[in-house]
Amino acid sequence: MIRKKGITRNLRPLEILSEEQIESIHKNTLDILENTGIRFESDRALKLFKENDCNVDMDKRIVRFPPWLVEECLRKCPSSFTVKGRGHRSNVRFGGNVSNFLPFPGKDTIDMETWEPRMPTRKEFYETVKIMDALDTVHYTGSYVPWFGFKNIPAVMQMLEGDAANFRNSTMPLHCNYGNDCETFAIRMAKALGAINLGVVAISPPLTYQEDACISAFRNIEAGFPLYIQSGPTYGATSPVTIAGATVTNNAELMGGVVMAQLIKPGTGVLVSDFGFAQNMRSGYPVFGRIESSMHQVVFNQVWRKYKIPIGNHSTGASNSKRIDYQCGYEKTISLMLSLLSGANEIGYHGCIYGELSFHPIQLILDDDVAATIGRFLQGVEINDDTLAIDVISQVGPIPGTYLTEEHTRKWWKSEQFIPKSSDSLTYLEWMEANKKDCIEYAKDRMEKILETHKPEPLSGSEEKAIEEILNEAREFYRKNGNISDKEWEAYKEDLNSPGYPYY
To answer: What pTM, to 2 d.p., does this model score?
Structure first.
């Protein structure tokens, strides 16, 4: 695996549906789009649909789509596209049989002694982006990654401060969110650095696009950026409880966005993402890391591969555990294995512990090992005259023969075996002599080494100046518009005047 090129799947994708079942989902999705419709809270979007042969109820803001238009717009989507970071090695291509990883964000970090959540500091945020930049299986980053924000930052500035932190500490491309016009400043940051963002459009299930999501679509496409369209239903609450029914509503919602994107600009790159979870029928909260979410994603991936449009899976990275423990490990690993085997091109995975509520750099580092391990599996087994080793087998023969001294062993063992970087691989005797370290302690050691040795490519002086000027314009804009209170501003000024700004 090579940094920035993702993980290549050399195996046939996992499939659990028949062709007849896929066609049934497709036809019923088109039926929902034609007869039930999608609600769009945007006059500009409604006007666009009306001008392109859709049945638009302007009062109810419902758009009903002719099936031919939906299928035509699906065909107009490219089968792959590229986003670009600020570095010369940082392009990421979505599509085909390659999977790229984005860390799965959390609202808070956790205290490793008490396991209780707390807001991270600026220093923790910046250092964690640096760790992300160093990991082989983290290919791009995003708004609200690794956390939704950090201490002393007004709510309205959290996204932009996070975007700036990512640009300052990494060369990776950015998955860019929106809200309160933040995307206008984020687009300008990317343009100033020669980067191409992946613009986010988040659906509000069931069957609704809010106005700010539509605005984000127009702004990002007009900036020349591809779109990341995501639906995040809760099965049994904002979608049908059945996997089949949730797939139909999910796909209808996403296809509505695909049509909007292709009507704005034909040929726009689109990545469609599944971010659904089951509802805990006892508490009413979503449940994470459950097999039904993975089954939904496998079905989703199989259907959308037929449309030849890049696919994202974002239910993959979340666990229901509140600790870095066995439950967290197995829930995340099973989900990731199924997403990768079934052909997801983009996966939100690394670092998350509980839902979107907690993230920790130790989990980020452990998840790097998991992703790389499954990546080795997806490479498959090389079968040729050399790997079959017939001559070596004949030469070594039975006992007392050994393969340890053979040139063939020295040639092949490193490519055939994968060695995790944060796992305990010691014998019992070695382990007892090494203070009985576990994977969390090894991950801590690796984290400290990365922070000591990894040097992300810095912004140039002119690039740093451009980023800070855009941030200052945003601060002034939101202060003038009343989005930043006096109390928030006082805390923010203290942060901005820190001797270590912007890094701590």
So the answer is: 0.95
